Amino acid sequence: MGKRVLAGLVTGAAFAAVAVIGAPAAQAAPAVPAAGTPVNCANVYIGTAGNQQFLHAQCSPVTAHTWTLVVQCSSGATNSSGPYSGFMDVYLYCPPGTTVTNGWINYT
Questions:
Q1: 3-state per-residue secondary structure call for 42-91
Q2: Low-confidence ranges of the chain (pLDDT < 50)
Q3: Alpha-carbon distances of 99 from 21, 39, 68, rounded to whole Å
Q4: How far does the signal peptide extend, from start to end residue (predicted)?
């Protein structure tokens, strides 16, 4: 199983272990992974299209072989997209009427 890289509202040393993207009440844009992590991401944010929330990320592996975007939803659903071995622009949706509660990037 791969490791997770932070892409969320967490700081400092935690970047080595977990890539959590929380959905704060104000819907602030999540931070991207710290420099030097195995996956390089940009434009990581939680958005809404109609009545569906999504997690968006543009990532590419740096020293990782593959990466996968994962989102957890308020319905209890966990959705993933990947693995990808190169740059991808990914929108990962929650079921209609639910919200993004967590998100992360797995890498191997």
A1: EEEEEEEECCEEEEEEEEEECCCCCEEEEEEECCCCEEEEEEECCCEEEE
A2: 1, 3-31
A3: 13, 25, 20
A4: 1-28
* Gap between the Cα atoms of 93 and 41, Å rounded: 18
Kind and range of the H or E run holding 106: strand 100-107
Q: What is the pLDDT of residues 46-72, one digit of tens each?
A: 999 999 999 999 999 988 899 999 999
Q: Residue 21 corresponds to which tokens in the numbers above? A: 């993207």
CB proximity list for 50: less than 8 A, separation 6 or greater: 96
Quote the pLDDT of residue 36.
Answer: 63
Burial class (CB in 10 A: 0-12, 13-18, 19+), 105: buried
